[in-house]
Amino acid sequence: MGALGNGGFWWNFPAGEGRGDRCKRRRKCKSSSSDSINLREERGWPHFDFPVKQAAIAASLALTGDTIAQFRDRIFGRGRSQLDVDAKEASFWSNHDWLRSLRMASYGFLLYGPGSYAWYQLLDQFMPKQTFITLSTKVILNQIVLGPCVIAVIFAWNNLWLGKLSELPAKYQNDALPTLLYGNKLSILSTL
Fold it and tell me: Is the whole-model pTM more than 0.85?
């Protein structure tokens, strides 16, 4: 349960020992992409275990993804003959919604990175064997459990920052299922 911070997502309560303590005794632990940077050891913060690497990766991917989405909307949202290539390049940065991109990056850093890190650590704890059955089960659980949770949180995060929390139920009702189905379609296509 080290992914959950031994008591919370990011806080390390004294109830258990973290990965860093085990590695000091054994001296055989290797770093992997699912390891978290342990700020307790690196910076001397006694009760703080935040998966910085995963948060930074999620933030950069969210920022990049939102930038690509905005660019795609500008190109395909207007008629192709309306803008020539030079005007498209010039309007790319001038019409970019940087607050939206930063909002998405903050979601990736503060919520998705640490949350998905904890989720995958939990899945690995309950299904440690690397077989086709466990891999398939993890993919199905991602689509059934993590997908709807991510959609619910991202809608709430955006509406919170836009000051439109009162519109959140209608957003869920109108957009949640189509977003989930589109995400599942992309997941299926990416596995083929």
Answer: no
